[in-house]
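Cross-check.
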Amino acid sequence: MEEQKDVWGRLEAAVEKKLQELGEVNSQLQRKIFDLHAIFEITKQLNSILELEKLLDAILLVASEQAGSTTAALVITSSNPEELSLWRSRGLDLAENLSPLSNNSYLVETLLRKMRGVTLAELEQILPSDSKEVRFLKDLGLELCFPLVSRDKIIGILFLGPRSSKGRYQAPDLEFLSTLVNNLAVTVENARLYQSIKAANLEVQKAQVQLAEKEKLAALGELAASLAHEINNPLGIIKNYLALLQQESHKNQTTLEYVEIMKEELNRVAKIIQELLNLYQPQKKEEFKPTDVASVLHESIDLLETDLEERQITLERKIDSAAPVISAREEELKQVFLNLLMNSRDFTPPGGKINVGLTQRNGSLEIEFADSGVGIPESDLKKIFVPFFTTKEKGKGTGLGLSICRRIIQDHQGNIEAKNLKGGGASFLIRLPLN
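Predicted model, tokenized:
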């Protein structure tokens, strides 16, 4: 009997240890996801600032606030792409006409080789002891250097001083700041393109601005892929240990319940990662081909019709079967329709009603999903397509579904909008061009 108690004691200790490890992994995951979202929102806001001088000041403000430092400096390339000569600073008695930094300088070459943030202590070990760059950093009390890289070239360097209230810089801080600065390089390039727009052919330069925007999304996609790869490894290890625990604890109901909870949370983490990848780095897409949207809409409804009947929700179809065929990606449209249908279902009480309509109007196909549910708070209407924003209860939504829907519809050159209905409930309207 004592031996059995000892076995169960060791097993419970092992379970508790694994629960603690899972909690630590989940905390790291949560931080990385929120870091990614913060970087996305920051770059989106800064990308709207197209005046270069204002943008540089905004970058210094954002970077210093995110780092928790009161001092920062920034230098970027100007008329001569072979040297960094345009200086800006924050919280420093720094003349803006400092000597340029050559692309062949020790500091630039070191940052280009490292492709990440470098501390002053690290530079002192790499650069010559009489390096003017090291003396410059020491004189101004700066501790960190981050390269702004575009097309494998350094177009600027961000310098940060010591933290004022958050203690010393830690590895996660450097990782976050390096990723942020990498994305800020795109905003600088966008601002430069805007200056070119004012001086050259407007239509040609607009196309270049759109290209820079796509580069920003590609950078976020690479970050999402890196994040998924980093997280999937510990998740796989934890799943293996869960399987072992489940085998060893089949007679202990409490332990089994713990294991089930951990499995559910792991599956939720995996779902978030997959949706994150779908949003920022979509998998290889099918080709556009002639698509009967009415048929796709009927198929999507059929998949959920039984579920709606069990929930006592009435669904009414007003689908124009004569609607013309358009060029589209069928599976992506089905993904959008299912997501909107499930949203309507989740917010419609028993006895409620969902209306699905398809009609042709003003050169577009209009698809509407309207429900008699609780509607959307007016303060949330402008935020529901923002990644990670959700009005569902905690644990029931990741806040990525509508963001993915909007991306898909925009890929089809269409648009999607949401509004509340006068009689109660909400409506999502999709417009897809016929041509």
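The radius of gyration is 27 Å. Residues 271 and 398 are 9 Å apart (CA to CA). Passed to J.P. for a second look.
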